[in-house]
Amino acid sequence: MLTQVIRFTLPSPSTISASGFSSLRRSASAAGAAAQYYGYTVPTRSYPLPREKHEICWVIEWPASADRGSVMAELKDLSAGDATSLLFQFADSQASDLRQAFEAPVCEFACISISSDAPLEDSALQTSMHKTYTDTYKIRGFTGGHWSYASNTNETHGVPSDVVPEPRLAEGDRRLGVYFLGWESIELHEDGTGTPEFSEEIDKLRPYFGPGTGAWYAILRKHQ
């Protein structure tokens, strides 16, 4: 399963409720999308990543064999020309964990960009990357989620969504870990960042943080 995270804006005066975006989501469903979630992004208080005003986050779950080209071309025509994409590979069995994040009151997209001089082959580093995710289950207000390395770029802002052929990084070269985390509220998440459970692995990883480390929130709704 591929999870695609797209960020874009619409030309004024269009909003997320525009009929063109509804039509685009229907096109994605026709192309094989298993599920879609969308909403405006919200800046985080700590480690906020750059975002555009009225930026939309659109998450699509695709079968690995789906042809996304026509949908991305339609998005280019609809958007303000700024659509970018991040791609992630997950096992089908992990879909339910991901949806607990996407269907939460607040979804956090937390990015750890590992610096170019960090030892990716270090098992302790990789253990900390994964434990950063599993430790969130100990934090009040967490609803579920999962994480993965981006497969198409190491840049947090992504690549243009209409790039053909799509870039694909070798597994050993992937340095952008993205955590899809569901929370009952922004305030509960902010409280959680002050806990030992949050800090334990983050403090170990902090020396390896590269440019692009940070997060954004989105209040997502499911496409019906």
Principal-axes geometry comes out as: globular
Number of domains: 1
Strand content: 25-35%
Radius of gyration: 17 Å
Amino-to-carboxy terminus distance: 20 Å
Identify low-pLDDT runs: none
CATH topology name, in short, is: Alpha-Beta Plaits
What is the CATH first-level class name? Alpha Beta
Task: Give the overall pLDDT as a whole number.
Answer: 96
Q: How does the helix and strand content classify structurally?
A: alpha+beta
Report what the structure shows:
This protein has 6 helices and 10 strands. 26% of the residues lie in helices and 28% in strands. The longest helix is centred in the N-terminal third of the chain and has 12 residues, at 19-30. Strands 1, 2, 3, 4, 5, 6, 7, 8, 9 and 10 form a 10-stranded antiparallel beta sheet that branches. Helix 1 runs antiparallel to helix 2 (69-78) and helix 4 (123-134) packs antiparallel against helix 6. The chain has one domain (2-222): 2-Layer Sandwich (Alpha-Beta Plaits), CATH 3.30.70.100. It has helices spanning 19-30, 69-78, 95-102, 123-134, 186-192, 196-205, and strands spanning 2-8, 35-43, 56-62, 84-89, 106-113, 142-149, 159-160, 176-183, 214-218, 221-222. The model has no long low-confidence stretch (mean pLDDT 96). The protein has 224 residues and is α+β, with helices and mostly antiparallel strands.
